[in-house]
Amino acid sequence: MDYMIGVDIGTTSVKTVLYDTAGQMQGYSNNLYPLYQDVPDMAEEDPDEIFSAMIDGLTTVMRKADLKNGKIQGVSFSAAMHSLILLDEDHKPLTRAITWADNRAVKYADELRENGVGKQLYEKTGTPIHPMTPLSKLIWLRNDQPDLFKQARWFVGIKEYVLYRLFGVLQEDYSIANATGLFNIFKMDWDDQALEVAGITRDQLPKLVDTTDQITGMNADYAGVIGMDPQTPFIMGASDGPLANLGVNAIKPGVVAVTIGTSGAVRVVTDKPKIDPKGRVFCYYLSKDHWVVGGPVNNGGIVFRWVRDQLFAPEKLTAEQMGVDSYDLLTEIAAKIPAGSDGLIFHPFLGGERAPIWDANARGSFFGLTRTHSRAHMVRAALEGIVYNLYTVMLALEEVVGKPTSIQATGGFARSELWRQMLADIFEQDVTIPESPEGTALGAATLGMYALGLIDDLSVVKNFIGVANVHHPNPETYDAYRALVPIYIRLSRQLQSEYKNIAEYQRTHVHQKKQK
């Protein structure tokens, strides 16, 4: 039995999965690390903590491989998009990894949108203007931390840093580069205008390579710790969103992948880059003839966690004492409330929002609250609000790529039958839940097998996954959701004019009170 390893460097952990070459999981490791949020809008991670977690993950799954009767064919990488690390001349970090969730560049992202330059850049890079992008972060650092900015010799993301530590080679795959806001998707090269706006030069960025590119010759010390032949090929891989589509077999035109984990996304694959004239969706590279068009949302399962911790603390404690899952308990409570939550609408923008409004200042709200509404209504409205928001992304996506033919849904939410059915009802589409618990890692492993010639085509991934559940929309919910979704959309547009004002108040008054 030969093996392929998929490594998924995520926002909260590194997931390392050992697959056989038939795509079946043979070993798994999930290594956590903290997110640092010392000041408002900050969201950083320690790159060396991530590197250690990655080493631990590889070491763990290597112990589960039968190397007497098989070999490790390769290791392939997925990574969260939009991270930025400043390195000095010796490739030592000058900063932590500034993640996609960091909003400190909001002022400069707003300026790019308002002065028209942002639209020009989006039309060349396929990356919407938002403080998440390295482009915006670089402008912020150049203006607000000029001494630190001037010290930097290199500007990289977490995957590039990890691979440099392993191999001493600094290079970046097209997919991760595509998400920086600095990469021209039509020229497949760094974009001159974007570099000028960011205030950096081409020689401060890694060498660009395809997602199927391979590296060998790992540092002998690390290879010894992991227990791996240093000549084992490491495949660059791609970014997590495109690989998640691949890992759930959503790579044919019209097949949409909906993911709800901590955050969420709606994505579909096309054979060439496509741009939204309204700038609401991204376009990211996966591999030759495979481009992923879609929209990410900040607010997925993290909203459900907030509802549990802030509104249902007693039930959380009871669940722990009973040895049952607190989320399962909450979905049981929500299931007793009718579709539409009796007219209670929740905008789930607890951490700003990306698609489709691309507003880091967005804030959450309940609308329609009356004395007849209970906490049970609030938890159901929160779950519905997350799906409403994903549906608005789908509506934007339809204008660019057409109506979906089917939906493949994954993420932590897939454990909840209520949430799965809610997705089918609001989208009015059949929803299939692939039997692929770690779709992003499987996508990375599949791309790695393709790069190594172990499979002839990415579509082979369909043989690697089964079907866990299929949900059909319930027509009895149509009236409620068809009436409420337009209200949800109109409200988010009307409230947008005040999001900036309330966000500024919170950044100044609330933060100042906490400091005192």
TrEMBL record:
Entry's family note: Belongs to the FGGY kinase family.
Residue stretches making up the Carbohydrate kinase FGGY N-terminal domain: 3-247
Residue ranges occupied by any Carbohydrate kinase FGGY C-terminal domain in the UniProt entry: 257-452
Name of the protein in its database record: Gluconokinase
GO molecular function, one term: gluconokinase activity
Top EC class of this enzyme: transferase
CDD domains for this protein: ASKHA_NBD_FGGY_GntK
Top-rank lineage group of the source organism: Bacteria
Entry keywords, A to Z: Kinase, Transferase
InterPro entries xref list: ATPase_NBD, Carb_kinase_FGGY, Carb_kinase_FGGY_CS, FGGY_C, FGGY_Carb_Kinase, FGGY_N, Gluconate_kinase
A Pfam family assignment: FGGY_C
EC number: 2.7.1.12
Transferase is among the record's keywords: yes
PANTHER family: GLUCONOKINASE, SUGAR KINASE
Gene that encodes the chain: gntK
